[in-house]
Amino acid sequence: MLADRMQQSGLKRPPGRAEAQIFHLSFPADALSVRGALRAALARFLRQMTPDEAGTLELILAEVLNNIVEHSYADSGHGTITLSMVRDRRGLSCSVSDDGVPLPVDCLTRADDDTDRPHPESLPEGGFGWFLIRDLAEDLGYRRENGRNLLAFRLPLQPQA
Description:
This protein is of the alpha+beta class. Helix content is about 30%, strand content about 25%. It has helices spanning about 1-10, 30-45, 50-70, 130-135; strands spanning about 20-30, 80-90, 90-100, 140-145, 150-155. A five-stranded antiparallel beta sheet has the order 1-2-3-5-4, with helices on one face. Helix 2 packs antiparallel against helix 3 and helix 3 (about 50-70) crosses helix 4. About 20% of the residues are buried.
């Protein structure tokens, strides 16, 4: 992107010009690539978030991306994940897509109260991830289209100065 090329060439951002507001990355569906994608996504928006917001973003993305690797592609390492994020006045809108197996509908189902929420100790390893995602993200949505999983959510952020 322009900002990356400017940084690599040693050019400075013109005064008054806003930080890059868009992030887009496609990467292999394996654990090592997920770690790299997480680092790149956080680095792009880190100066535009509080430490708590950055931690929440990292937690949500790690849960979503690792679930795709583990469940959608069954840890095969085959396939591609695409992550897109846009920073605007409402926060950080994120979309994740892959062509693995469909997401089970009950992952996104949320009860009106927490009486049905299982205790974390009673869940299999990692089974609490979707509860965290639903609690921390806003406007969470999913659909399957043309053999692809499309997941979108928004992370509210403090307004930029």
